[in-house]
Write a structure and sequence with these properties.
The protein is mostly helical and 378 residues long. It has helices spanning 2-19, 22-57, 62-77, 79-94, 99-122, 126-150, 167-199, 203-239, 244-270, 272-277, 283-296, 300-315, 320-344, 348-352, 354-373. Helices cover 84% and strands 0% of the residues.
């Protein structure tokens, strides 16, 4: 939710940057940072307190409950760093700087891997070690991205001393950010529903889904990056009044995202057994995971339309209709699918196939709405 909220709020920054209003750029950045700090404190308290109830709601197997609660509570204790990193990285991208967030993420990943080896393998801390490693690496990334932002004097004048809420700008940021937050939250809620349904099939299925999630993230990260890129590009051009570039850039972004997604799909399917064997030696888990991957991955190309078109619409400040489309396409239809199909065929495949079905329908809605809206960008 908060990732979507800050992404929507960053549109304000990109539009002010495109129009050349330096003062409002600076005030918007300080406002988003202040709101991130407040939001992280609230989320920490909620996460630590509600972790057991949320896990039970998701039908988490009892043998996994203790470690899951421990991991979540440590993770939520450091959610402040997650908020700050996402905020800082989003703002840098809104200003047209996509390299420094990448450098920061690379540093964070290396540190996370080193700490995982040290805390899990070396000190034998298990799940707690994994959570602590994540917390520490994210803390370092939050510091680095903030320093990067403070040093971008040619783009903005960000200072820790100036962090405060500017009410009028906060209102504008929330008007754009809240719908984006709800849109992102719907994806997570629907995934939690899927996870809850899969958890009933036992620990082998849970392990296979967890391993698949790591491979699945490769595609999501790439496609999500294109979504962020088109939001920033469209936002800056919309602010500068260059409407003719909006339609062209969206088309180019769709083509690039589709081509890269196709390459990743081919790679994941071709190397699926080798990839799953990196996570486990259990043949049952590998088989279940491979079946999941083959069912879902070919449909990633369809999801490209949802990511890019939603990003382009967000860039011009159109957020309400995309949220409604996402609510109907991703949440409502997926829940309806699970309720209906599981009564007829209570299988893992039936659950998994809810992804391609709802992606296809949602993509068609987005294409239709974007074609209607793009007349204004010709």
């Amino acid at each position: 939710f908060f990732t979507g909220l800050t992404a929507g709020a960053s549109v304000i920054v990109s539009q002010f940057f495109g129009s050349g209003d330096r003062k409002k750029v600076d005030d918007s950045i300080h406002t988003i940072y202040a709101f991130s700090i407040i939001g992280s404190v609230i989320m920490t308290l909620i996460g630590i307190t509600a972790a057991p109830a949320l896990l039970r709601l998701m039908n988490t197997p009892e043998e996994l409950m203790s470690d899951s609660i421990l991991y979540l509570r440590i993770y939520f204790a450091g959610i402040f760093f997650v908020f700050i990193y996402n905020t800082g990285a989003g703002l840098l991208r809104a200003l047209g700087d996509s390299r420094r967030p990448l450098y920061c993420l690379m540093i964070c990943c290396v540190i996370n891997i080193v700490l995982d080896l040290l805390l899990i393998v070396g000190l034998g801390l298990g799940v707690a070690g994994a959570a602590i490693a994540t917390l520490l690496s994210q803390g370092i990334s939050a510091v680095i991205v903030t320093v990067f932002l403070m040093r971008q004097k040619d783009l903005c004048d960000f200072s820790l001393k100036e962090i405060r809420i500017h009410p009028r700008l906060l209102k504008s940021e929330l008007l754009l950010g809240l719908p984006g937050g709800f849109q992102y939250a719907m994806y997570s809620i629907s995934n939690m529903i899927i996870q809850s349904a899969l958890n009933k099939f036992g620990t082998d299925t849970v392990a296979a889904w967890a391993a698949y999630g790591k491979l699945d993230a490769i595609v999501w990260m790439v496609s999500g990056a294109f979504g962020i890129a088109i939001t920033t590009f469209v936002g800056q051009n919309y602010g500068a009044g260059k409407l003719d570039r909006i339609r062209k850039s969206t088309r180019v972004c769709l083509i690039m995202d589709a081509l890269i997604s196709a390459v990743l799909v081919i790679f994941l399917i071709a190397a699926r057994k080798i990839l799953f064997s990196l996570f486990t030696n259990d043949e049952t888990v590998i088989q279940i995971g491979c079946e999941m991957l083959v069912l879902i991955t070919p449909w990633y190309i369809v999801y490209v339309f949802i990511e890019v078109l939603a990003g382009a619409l967000r860039g011009v400040g159109d957020v309400i209709v995309p949220v409604i489309i996402t609510l109907l396409g991703i949440c409502v239809m997926r829940i309806a699918w699970l309720i209906g199909v599981l009564k007829i065929s209570p299988t893992i495949s039936a659950i998994i196939f809810s992804y391609p079905v709802t992606w296809l329908l949602t993509a068609l809605f987005f294409i239709g709405y974007y074609l209607y809206k793009q007349k204004k960008f010709s």
